[in-house]
Structure formats: structure tokens, C-alpha cells
Amino acid sequence: MSAQLTLGPVQYNWAPEDWRDFYFKVADETPVETVFIGEVICSKRAPLYDNQLPDVVERLHDAGKHVIFSTLSEVTTDIDRRLVKRIAQSEGFPIEANDVSALQQMAAGPHHIGPLMNCYNEEALEVYAANGAKSICLNPEMPRVGIAALAEAAERHGVELEVQVYGRMSLALSARCYHARAHNRTKDSCLFVCDEDPDGMRLDTLEGDQFLTVNGIQTQSHSVLNLIDCLDDLQSIGINRFRISPQSIGTFTAIQAFDDVLNDRISPSEALKKMRDDSVDAPFSNGFYHQRPGYEWHDKVPAE
């Protein structure tokens, strides 16, 4: 199977017009084959994009993109449950589940498992495959040795594995909204304060070191995952689907850089330089892949 780039859903609260224009540009200007869309963090944000959604889907389809709808990742309220049910039981488009509740709502049939669900071992993969999963996007903290083991199991069960190769990493989810709390607001009366931070709100340590990123109920890494120099190694262990997670800055440069490396037009080092010149204000990291702290950067591909 040839390598393909996928684009994960926007996880931040962008202005509806910016959200629409981002996907229009994805449709018109990128080599991405599969595009995941949908609100995965906060059900209160979902209605903000209702007016833009039909035009976005039509534009992506007209450009030949495969569109998959992603569900919420943390389901705690009736509003959350209704949104997941509406997406999961809709007909006519494929679904990516990011919470077990979506699996309960879907009729038996092919679907996808997103990186906000857990798949850390062969037994979990077998359960997902038996339930109808066509592909599974692994959690970004998976090391190479774990990815290789799951790739072997995926081949046995006829499941495609996908690995996030670019973008901030999701580390934790909570019923509480950290963004609202940081502004002395409750989750129900947040006034969508998260829209002030199009790439999340930086969280520093008491010593002033840049540490994490807050995105509503989600805790993300401060560093930006970048596995551009691991693509050959990933392909050697059976991974051919590579996901880019959107940021407000640098996403299109990253898409082109990964496509150029996958097609041998430029080297990983040349691609890194291009991406460092057009990225959010945060370092790149690949530590998890190398079984090291996730925020670290390592040049050497890990041994078998």
C-alpha cells in the first residue's frame, strides 16, 4: 500500500469563517487524501460550525477528498450524548469514534477509531477489529516498539493503522474545562473564552518554564510532535497512514513537507528547516517514539 497523508479534525475553537476557509484551502491546495472533520473537544462549540459544514463537506468532496466525521472525545452530559448519537447514527458518511459511547450508538458496520480512544495492546486492537473498525489512529505516546507490535496484529485482523506525525499531542481529557477555570468562569458560562487561543493556552511551571497547552477540557503538549525523520522507519514496520493534526500556523507547510519527503522530493532535514520557519512558537519533539520523555527531540531512529 502506498503512503497517504490524512488530516485530523481541528481541535481548537476557531472563528467559523476561519474554520471554513481552512478546509477550503485543504480542498483546493493540499495532497491530503483523507480529511477528518467534526467537533471532538466541546459539544458547545459544534453549533458554531453548522452553517459552514455543508459547504465544507461539498468543497472537500468536489476536490476528491475522503471525508470522515469525528465524534466527541469526552461524553459527560445529555448535550454531549445527543451530539454523539446524532453523528454516530447518521447515514451516508463514515465515522471516527473518539469515545466508547459512539461505538454503542453505531449500528454494526465499518468505522474508524480515533487517537482520543485508547489502543495500547493487541487485545484491544482485536476487540476493535471484531467490532468493525477499518482503521485505528494510535495514541501519540506510543513508542516505536509498541507501534511495530500493533502493526503485526493489525495485519492479521485486516485493520489499517494510522500514526500522528505532526501537531500538538493530546495527553489528557477532563470533565472540567481548564480554559474556563483559568478565566474564573464555569464550564456552563464560559462565554467561549477558548476562542482567544487558536492554538491553545500555554501553561507554564511555577519556575516559568513552558510546559503544557490547555484547550478547553483537553491537556496537550507544549511541544509539537514531528516524526518527519521517522517516516521511512514507520513504513518499514507497516505504517502507511500518517496524520497531521491542524494548528493555526504552519499546517500547510507541514502537509507539503511531509508529502515532499514521502515522494523523495526533499530530505527530512530540508523539510525540518522549512517547518521550523513556519510553525507555532514551540519546539518540535519526538521523544515518545524513541521511548523517551515526549517533549524531547532525538535524531537517531531507535533500534529494533
Describe this structure in words.
The protein is an alpha/beta fold. The chain has a single domain (4-169, 223-290), classed as Aldolase class I (TIM Barrel, Alpha-Beta Barrel), CATH 3.20.20.70. The protein is 32% helix and 21% strand. It contains 10 helices and 12 strands. It has helices spanning 16-29, 53-62, 78-88, 100-105, 122-130, 144-157, 178-182, 231-236, 251-262, 268-276, and strands at residues 4-7, 34-37, 66-70, 95-97, 111-113, 133-137, 160-173, 201-204, 210-215, 218-226, 241-244, 284-285. The chain has an 8-stranded parallel barrel, surrounded by 4 helices. A hairpin with a 5-residue loop joins strand 8 and strand 9 (210-215). Helix 1 (16-29) runs parallel beside helix 2, helix 5 (122-130) packs parallel to helix 6 (144-157) and helix 9 packs antiparallel against helix 10 (268-276). The protein is globular. The protein starts with a strand and ends in a 19-residue tail after the last strand.
CATH architecture level-2 label: Alpha-Beta Barrel
CATH top level class name: Alpha Beta
Largest beta sheet: what is the strand line-up?
A: 1-2-3-4-5-6-7-11
Fraction of residues in helix: 25-40%
Q: Strand-and-helix sequence, N→C? A: EHEHEHEHEHEHEHEEEHEHHE
Q: How many beta-strand runs?
A: 12
> Number of helix segments?
10
**What share of residues are in beta strands?**
15-25%
Cα end-to-end separation: 22 Å
Number of domains: 1
